[in-house]
Amino acid sequence: MKYIPLILIILISISVKKNYAQEKSTLKLAMAQMLVEGGNKEANLNRAVERIVEAAKNGVDLVLLPEAMDLGWTHSSAKIQAKPIPSGSTFQILAKAAKDNQVYVCAGIVEKDGDRTFNSAVLINRKGELVLKHRKINELDIAHDVYDQGDRINVCETEFGTIGLLICADATAKDYMLTRSLGYLGADLILLPSSWAVEADHDNNKNPYGGLWRNAFMPVCKEFNLNIAAVSNVGDIIDGPWKGWYCIGNSIFMSNNAENTSVLPYGKNADTIHYQDVVLMERPARGTSWYGYWSTLNDNN
Q1: 112 has pLDDT over 80
Q2: What structural domains and CATH numbers belong to the chain?
C-alpha cells in the first residue's frame, strides 16, 4: 500500500474546496426587511411566506429574514409559543416555503428545546432541509430572562460556497471574535438575522443609526475577504424590556474587503425587500494552519 504524504492530502483538499466554490461564484440575495408584530406568530409567518414567494419570483437564490421574526425579540410569548427545530410548526412553515419556491431561506426564530428557550436562526436549503442552526451567544443582558445562551458556531457548504450564521449582537462580541471565528472556518458569507431598535424619541438626522454595525463588519470583511448581510425587522416593540421602542430596519450588506456597502431604508414603516448580488471569492480554503503557508507559496511562485 502506498501512503500519500500529508502535504499532498492538504493540497488536494484545498483544491477540492476551491473547485466546489467555483460552481457558482455569485448568488442573488433577497434582504427581507419585514414588519414583525410582537407575539403575532401567524401574521408574521404569513408575511414571511409572502416575502419568500415575492423574492423567488424575482429569481433569488437566498432569502434572509430578521431575528425572532416569528414572535419579536424578547416578547414574553417566547416562553409559551416557541417551537422545536426542525419538528415544530414554525420551522415547518418556512421549510415548506423554501421547498415550494426552490430557494434557500435564512430566518431568526424562537426555539423550544425541553425546558429551554433559545433565540435561534436557521438556514434551510431548496429541498426544505435544515442545513445550519445557530443559537445566539452574545445576547444582551436584558434578554437573559427570556432566552438561554448558545454555546457553539459552525458553517455549512452550499453550491455557492461556505455560509456562516450568527444573530445580531453576536457580531459585536469582544474583538469581533465570533465573526472572525467564522472567517477562520472558511465562511464566504455570514448571514445575520437582526432586530435593531431605537428609543421613541431617536432623531436619525442628529444621530444616524448604523455606525456600530459598519464598524463591526468592516475589519472582518477586510481581514477574511468575506461578505456580511444583516437584516433587521421594522415596527413597534409592544412588550419586553424595550417596550415603547421601535425597530428601524436600516439593514446592511457589506461585500468582500468592505469595498461595497448597501444600506436599506430607516424607519418603523420601512418594510421592503432589497435584492443584492453577492460575489463569493474563488480562493483556497481558510481555517487551517496551512492556509497562510500555502498562500505564501502561491505568492512566491
Answers
A1: yes
A2: 25-300 (3.60.110.10)
